[in-house]
Amino acid sequence: MLKRNVTTRAAKRIIPVLAALWLLVSCSQPKPPQLAGGTLLPAARALQAFTLVDHHNQPFTQDALAGQWSFVFFGYTHCPDICPTALGKLKRVLTRLEATGETPLPRVLFVSLDPERDTPAVLAGYVSAFHPDFVGVTGKAAQLRRLTGQLGIHYERSDSGSDKDYQLNHSAAIFLFNPRGRYQALFSAPQDPEKIVKDFTAIRHWYEANR
Questions:
Q1: Which of 36, 43, 59, 142 can bridge 195 by disulfide, Cβ–Cβ 3.0-4.6 Å?
Q2: pLDDT by residue (tens digit) across 7-59?
Q3: 39-209 domain in CATH 1.20.120.350?
Q4: Could you tell me which of 100, 65, 66, 83 has the C-alpha nearest to residue 200?
Q5: The pTM is what?
Q6: Which residues make beta-bridge pairs with 186?
Q7: What's the rounded Cα separation, in Å, for the pair 68 and 77?
Q8: How far is Cα of residue 131 from the mean position of the Cα atoms in its chain?
Q9: Whole-angstrom distance, CA of residue 181 vs CA of residue 3
């Protein structure tokens, strides 16, 4: 009888512990999603201050990235192939997300690495040709370097061409920023719009589940 009572008391102590462990496991944060084509950063990265301007001639700083999801591509309007291809793909991404009912839709930002030729007015005409909601961003060279340096983006002017007719060698990656304005994921070339849609949806659901 004594042994049975000891066993009963031990069980009563163990049951609350097991229940607490089960609750802890069931309430643990969801695991990061397995992406089809993108790369999710282990921890979203905050940016240091920078000051640029959008194609409406309004200031664009690191704070402007907050408030909603943003796809960001770095290029220039005279780019013969990489930039129009990437923006065309991002247009398809928005169209697909809209069709699947994702809301609100992410922004698409096109940051020019060629401030000498890409004025806000030039950018306004360029990005609107792809989508009316695309936003062009430019600014002084030093501020562009301040931003691109934080993201590991390298670009340089090609040796060929004249002072007004030249090309830039630049990255073809698409960057994703979360609603806190932090660098969350990267989509390296070549990008597949369908995979970006799938990855973005998975990232967004994971992000919201961890808030």
A1: 36
A2: 555 445 555 544 444 434 445 678 999 999 999 999 999 999 999 999 999 99
A3: no
A4: 100
A5: 0.85
A6: 39, 175
A7: 25
A8: 18
A9: 62
Phi then psi dihedrals of residue 158, to 5 deg: -70, 150
Q: What is the 3-state secondary structure (H, E, C) of 23-46?
A: HHHHCCCCCCCCCCCCEEEEEEEC
The residue type of 9 is: R
> Which amino acid makes up residue 67?
G
Average pLDDT for residues 144-154, to the nearest whole number?
96
Residue type, 162: S
Angle between helices 193-209 and 82-99 (to 10 degrees): 60
Question: Phi and psi dihedrals of 195, rounded to 5?
Answer: -70, -35
Residue with tokens 């398809």: 92
Domain boundaries, the chain: 39-209
